[in-house]
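Recap from last week: sequence in, structure out.
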Amino acid sequence: MDNHYVPNLTIGPLVCQALKPHTSVPIDVHLMVKPVDRIVPDFAKAGASIISFHPEASDHVDRTIGLIHDCGCKAGLVFNPATPLVWLDHVLDKLDLVLIMSVNPGFGGQSFITEALAKLRLARARIDAVQARTGREIRLEVDGGVKVDNIGAIAKVPSSPDPRSSARPTMPRRSRRCVRPRPHDSSYGPERARVRVGKFLRAML
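Predicted structure tokens:
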């Protein structure tokens, strides 16, 4: 989060870099920033495994996907509640992950937007069609308001709930193993980052 594309300002590449030596699980970075291309190489160098971004935040979506791959990371595209899936029409076969936001981005503690279930089904159908045609593995995730009272309906789609979602529910451990840092500015010092990362790891693992 960059205090521009969304109101909050949060975790940046320094935290990702501090986290990398302490974990063997993939570091899944969801960029809520604009512009995107400038910061992608920073997170890749910091140890990100997967980098996802919002199509509205990129002037050239296909180019940004290519940049992420060129940096050695898997690429994902993130869809806000009102963002249509039409962005997938010409790039889905290049993606490794599709993330459906079930809340509006920028704040924790929001309620799950039930329309996201319909969007998940549509995304699932698109992904299955591409996988059948190309054999490419594409993950489907949902982020926001995932709780014990709705995770059953979400799982039936099926998709992979984001482990950083509000009120992180009890779910199979495999679904909880991705770590999703958020962007921050460069003033976030490494010493403070290491302290925060330690607490974060204990909470996640």
